[in-house]
Amino acid sequence: YPERGNPEKGGNFIIAAHRFSIQPTPQSTIEKSPFYNIDKLAVSDKIVIDYDGARYGYEVEKVFDVKPNQIEIEAPSKESKLTLYSCELGGADAGRIVYVAKPLGLIALDSTQPKE
C-alpha cells in the first residue's frame, strides 16, 4: 500500500503478506510463506526494511489481533509507522495478527543498527 506511506515520506507504511501458503514440500511451504514466523515478533523487537536503495530500522510497539473486516489498520496516518499484518493460521476467515512499529531511522547498508 505505497499510497498510504513509506519509509522515506512517512505515513502508514503497510506490508501485508501470507503467513502460510501450502506447497509440495514443507521447506518450500516455509520459503513461499513470507510471514510464516511473524508470530515470533514481540514488542521491542527490531525490524530492518530495505526500501528504494536505503535501509530503515523500526521497533515493534504494539501487537494485537483484528477481525478480517477491521480495515482501520490500513488507514492513512500523519504519524510515521510500519504496519505488518497477516492472517492467523486459521485461514482467510480467521483474524489478522497486526504489528505496529515506530521508525528508528536510517541504517547503514552494511549494518542492522540505526545510524548514530
Structure description:
It is a single chain. The chain has one helix spanning 26-31, and strands at 5-6, 10-16, 46-51, 54-66, 81-87, 96-107. With 116 residues, the protein is mainly beta. The protein has one domain: Sortase (Sortase, Chain: A, Beta Barrel). A hairpin with an 8-residue loop joins strand 5 (81-87) and strand 6 (96-107).
Features:
single chain; 116 residues; mainly beta; Sortase, Chain: A; 1 helix; 6 strands; 5% helix; 41% strand
Distance N terminus to C terminus? 30 Å
CATH hierarchy: architecture: Beta Barrel
H and E order? EEHEEEE
Structural class: mainly beta
- State the total count of DSSP E strands: 6
- How many domain units? 1
Brief synopsis:
With 116 residues, the chain is mainly β.
Layout of secondary structure:
Blueprint: E1 5-6, E2 10-16, H1 26-31, E3 46-51, E4 54-66, E5 81-87, E6 96-107
Parallel strand pairs: 2-5
Antiparallel strand pairs: 1-2, 3-4, 4-6, 5-6
